[in-house]
Structures are given as C-alpha cells and as structure tokens.
Amino acid sequence: MTLSDTDQTPAIPSNTTPQTQVSLGGKVIAITGANRGIGLGVAECCLSNGAARVYSIDIGETGEDFDGISKRFPGQLFAVTANVTEESTITAAIDKIIEEAGALHGMVVNAGRTHHKAALDFTKEEIENLFNVNLFGAFYTARAAARAFIKLGIKGSVVFTASMASYRPNKRVPSTPYGASKAGIRNMTHTLAMEWAQYGIRVNSVSPGLVKTAMTYWVPQQPDWEQQLKYYGGFPRLAEVQELGGAYVYLLSEAASYTTSIDIPVNGVIGSEFAHAFVLRKMGLLTYTVC
C-alpha cells in the first residue's frame, strides 16, 4: 500500500467533537455489487453527499446507468473487479483502492443474490451459492475492510445490506436459505460491532423492502397490484434506489460516530411483508446487488 503520494486523499482525522452535519466530505467509500441496482443508488447518494471517491467492487460489468453517474461525478466513481466469495480478491481490491485513493473510510457490504422456491426443493448447489455470496462473502468483505481500517489507523464504518426477509418469512414465496442468510447478516452486524468497537470501527446494517430496479420495473403492472397495496398498507409504490441512500450515508458519516450494532429498515411498510414475492415470478435467480 502506498500512502505517501501528494495527490492522494488524506485519512480523515479522528474528531473528539461530535459532528452535527450528515456529510461524507473527503471520505473514500467502497461498495460491493455497485455496478447497478441498489448498490449503484447508494454510490450516487454517497457522491451527492460529498464523498471524495466511491469504488464499486463487483464481479460483473458496468452499464449505462453506471456510466451516467460517472459522468455526473467525473473522476470520483470507479469500478474494481473482485469475487466476494474469494477473500483474497476482496483484499486485493481494497489494496488497489487504498493505493489509488490513499485511504478507505467506509465499506458497504451490499453484494448478494436470491433464489426463491420451497425448502424441500432446494438443491445443495443452490443453497451453497446463496450462502457463499450472501453470508460468507459478506463476512470476507467486512473482515478485509476492518483489517485495512486497523492498518491505516482509521475509525471506519461497515454497513451491511440485510433485508426485510431477515425479520420474517415472505408470505407469498418463502426462501429459507435467503432469509436465513440475511438474518445471519444482522447477527453478524451485532457481533462484529461488539468485537471491533475497540478499534473505533462501527458496524451497522440496512434492511430494504421492495425496491424499483431493472428487475422489478414490471411489479406495479401486476393486475392485483392495487388490491395488494390496500391489503398491506404503507406507501403505495416501490422505493427508488436513491431513497435507500440516506440510511447508508448517515451510517457512513461522522454524524453516526456513536451509532453501531443497529439495523435500519427502509421498507415503506409494504416491504416488510413481501419484499421479494414478485421477483420470483419474473426472474427466479438474481445476482449481485439484489437486496
């Protein structure tokens, strides 16, 4: 790691005075699975709130949405390739980020995948694929980030993307492995927060409900959509990906300097009951950035 270049972003100094403004000014943030979807929406919010640089760590390719945000924030949004199921690649990605940017202040552990079917029908391979990304990959990512924070002497922030499915099963189409993996994320949040408090590292999570992405654009077009909204209550629409960003920005900011070991549900109420029900109908198996 090289930290001496004059053009690199300096580490944020430790402050003893509580910060009252929610801002990411000068911070370097990494987000797994941010080439598209929820992760990219969080990246956009981070940049809109002053982040110096945001890096997407993803196994896939970037697309038009990523390029559009990159043009809005020239020289601030970057993509690094890594596979979260292989800890060595995550470590290498973080090393590259620190070499380029000079620091790392926040890690959003967002990469995930989902697959919905009856518990009795899941194959061993399907279960392992879910756990490898959602749980093991999340642990590897958080640990690699924590090691970097400790080495740099930075009181960093880790924010996991959990899910409303971690609180209760999907009534329409349950997915035992998916819900269990996301419940594991919330437990991991609490345990790591306890372990890493000695280093000044904060660990929290966000639980999205039903979010409008390229994979759920058709949801409001369902013939019974209005009836379902009346049944479940809450906001009568899906969330925009950017609407999740405020929770992440707060948890990454110095305004949350005493906030650790919590989960923030962002569900508009409706997501609490069927956050993923419609996804099965259309897509079946989804990949990174689905939360």
Offer a concise description of the structure.
With 291 residues, this protein is α/β, with parallel strands linked by helices.
Give an account of the 3D structure.
The chain is α/β, with parallel strands linked by helices and 291 residues long. It has a single domain (28-282), classed as Rossmann fold. 38% of the residues lie in helices and 14% in strands. It has nine helices and nine strands. It has helices spanning 37-48, 64-72, 87-101, 124-152, 176-196, 225-232, 245-252, 271-274, 277-282, and strands at 28-32, 53-58, 77-81, 106-109, 157-161, 202-208, 211-212, 239-240, 263-266. The strands form two sheets. The chain has a seven-stranded parallel sheet with strand order 3-2-1-4-5-6-9, sandwiched between helices. A two-stranded parallel ribbon has the order 7-8. β1 (28-32), α1 (37-48) and β2 (53-58) form a beta-alpha-beta unit. 47% of the residues are buried. The model is unreliable at 1-7 and 273-291 (pLDDT under 50).
What is the fold's blueprint, element by element?
Elements: E1 28-32, H1 37-48, E2 53-58, H2 64-72, E3 77-81, H3 87-101, E4 106-109, H4 124-152, E5 157-161, H5 176-196, E6 202-208, E7 211-212, H6 225-232, E8 239-240, H7 245-252, E9 263-266, H8 271-274, H9 277-282
Parallel strand pairs: 1-2, 1-4, 2-3, 4-5, 5-6, 6-9, 7-8
Helix pairs in contact: 1-7, 3-4, 4-5
GO molecular function: oxidoreductase activity, acting on NAD(P)H, oxygen as acceptor; oxidoreductase activity, acting on the CH-OH group of donors, NAD or NADP as acceptor
Region (Disordered): 1-20
Protein name: NAD(P)-binding protein
